[in-house]
Design a protein that fits this description.
Elements (H helix, E strand, L loop, with lengths): L6 H21 L9 H8 L14 H11 L4 H25 L4 H12 L3 H4 L5 H22 L2 H17 L3 H13 L10 H23 L3 H12 L6 H11 L4 H13 L7 H16 L11 H16 L3 H22 L5 H6 L1 H6 L15 H4 L4 H14 L6 E5 L2 H10 L8 E2 L16 E6 L15 E9 L11 E8 L3 H15 L1
Parallel strand pairs: 1-2, 1-3
Antiparallel strand pairs: 3-5, 4-5
């Protein structure tokens, strides 16, 4: 298939889709929603730069540092995942080019990419958006190497693999999927190329600071994965994992089917059999480990590219079929937007409860259904909680001698982000905040945030250790996951609070 259009038209369309992808990440989010709990943690990592963190590798902290330099505003927080998503779409567009797809096939993959779960993924400042970008770039450069045999493609593949690793260890599952896929195809000759091993050496060099950090800290990633498996992955059913793969791309179902059929019967795709085998092996690995459905999202941009090329070849110049296909993708996506994106207010979601429940959108990581999708509930109430903490903080006379201790990383990060006091430094015994306590000066006062249902400190062992304990306020935001969280001010320490905090921190570290 040859392109009959001038390059400037193709470039102009690519720019249009690129900008559309970014703009939709802003437009399709109702302004009643705040930042997500995970976003606060990643933003706070910019204040504690290191070669690694207990929760994620270090790359996100560098992006957060750039965001901080740009003013730390919500616009820039939302821009980065939107940009990574748009860049992923560009790689998918280029993969179509590698496959000799025409301009319609390229536009089709762009439309399919926009009208999929990626629009949801790319509104949150989490490692997932860059994860999908890295996976797609890896496929692109590996396809490019097999097409051209240029060593430079291998080095670029290695760099993107390393960047993917520094963003999220998830990329190792893709590597485990690609290896057997190549070994059982004629492409195994790649293992006789010395440049492959030089490229592997380059990748190892890039990731070495984080690997050394993991070794020095006794591999906290293992403890993190163990906790994740015990608290979240245990609630995931394998059948749901595969079902959600389908639901995530329901608008693009014909392109995915076209990709599978193309790999089976389309002669030009035979030399790319390692791609579909990589997909199958990686998906099986995730299924074996009870992975969450979104862990595998990096596999699909390349499949959408193959599907776009094959389906364009099948319908050829049948413009009515082309129009029907595009209308189906866009129309079905428009129908599911209210379920996939936070465009409805919480009240409207509750009013349409059944519609959300039917597709499992209300099921949280605890395996139970709730009023809102979990991500949406995680975007409520943070400003209000920070405002209550600010009231407590304003009452403290010596602000250099107070510790704000929360119950989880979401609370700590949200307080640090939304508080009007720039040096409030809220911490927690949860996630990376466990390592971020500042205890270089004697602590006189504590501000405690208790989750709903926990005992008040007045009724617990804290009472004898402080001169005064006051309840400052309770989060009453009806739709917030943190609803009922209560802020207490504990003034006038009668004991060595620093020593007690250090003991509790060590206990938490040992438990982890």
């Amino acid at each position: 298939m040859k392109n009959r259009y001038p390059h400037f038209i193709e470039f102009g369309l690519l720019v249009f889709f690129f900008l559309l992808k970014i703009v939709l990440s802003y437009v399709l989010v109702n302004n009643v929603y705040e930042l997500h709990r995970d976003e606060f943690l990643h933003l706070d990592q910019a204040n504690h730069l290191a070669a690694g963190f207990t929760s994620v590798p270090p790359l996100m902290s560098l992006f957060s540092l750039i965001i901080q330099f740009l003013g730390n505003g919500v616009f820039w927080v939302k821009f980065f995942p939107a940009f990574f998503g748009a860049l992923t779409m560009v790689f998918a567009w280029q993969i179509v080019g590698k496959l000799k797809g025409n301009l319609f096939a390229k536009c089709l993959v762009a439309i399919a990419f926009i009208c999929s779960v990626y629009i949801r993924l790319n509104i949150l400042y989490q490692p997932n958006s860059f994860d999908v970008l890295a996976w797609t770039a890896m496929f692109y450069y590996l396809i490019g190497y097999f097409e051209t045999n240029k060593p430079g493609m291998l080095y670029k593949f290695a760099i993107w693999t390393a960047l993917g690793f520094l963003n999220k260890y998830n990329v190792l599952f893709l590597v485990l999927g690609i290896l057997p896929a190549i070994l059982i195809t004629p492409r195994r000759s790649i293992f006789t190329n010395k440049h492959l091993y030089f490229a592997i050496g380059l990748a190892l060099l890039i990731i070495s600071p984080n690997v050394i950090w993991q070794i020095k800290h006794n591999f906290p990633v293992i403890s993190h994965m163990k906790e994740l498996a015990e608290t979240q992955l245990v609630n995931i059913k394998r059948i749901d994992f595969f079902k959600e793969q389908l639901l995530s791309f329901i608008s693009d179902i014909f392109l995915l089917l076209a990709a599978f059929v193309g790999f089976a019967i389309y002669k030009p795709f035979r030399k790319y059999s390692w791609v579909i085998l990589s997909y199958i092996f990686t998906l099986l690995i995730f299924s074996y480990f009870n992975g969450k459905s979104y862990y595998a999202l990096g596999l699909y941009p390349v499949l959408l590219a193959f599907g776009s090329v094959y389906i364009t070849e099948v319908i050829c110049k049948r413009y009515i079929l082309r129009t029907v296909l595009v209308l189906f993708i866009v129309g079905s996506f428009a129908y599911i937007i209210p379920i996939m994106m936070p465009v409805y207010t919480p009240e409207k979601i509750i009013a349409n409860h059944k519609r959300f429940e039917r597709v499992g959108a209300l099921r949280w990581e605890d395996g139970k259904n709730h009023d809102l999708p979990q991500d949406f509930a995680d975007m409520q109430g943070w400003k209000a909680l920070a405002a209550i903490v600010d009231v407590a903080y304003s009452k403290v006379k010596d602000k250099a001698a107070v510790v704000v201790r929360t119950d989880n990383y979401g609370q700590a990060g949200a307080i640090n982000y939304y508080s009007k006091y720039r040096n409030i430094n809220a911490v927690s015994y949860n996630a990376d905040y466990l390592y971020w306590f500042k205890l270089d000066r004697p602590v006189k006062d504590l501000i405690l945030i208790r989750e709903a249902g926990e005992e008040d400190p007045e009724r617990k062992k804290e009472q004898p250790f402080f001169e005064k304990i006051s309840k400052i306020g309770e989060l009453k935001s009806p739709f917030a996951r943190e609803k009922g969280a209560t802020v207490f001010l504990l003034e006038g320490a009668k004991i060595d609070i620093n020593r007690r905090l250090k003991l509790e921190i060590e206990e938490e570290k040992n438990d982890n």
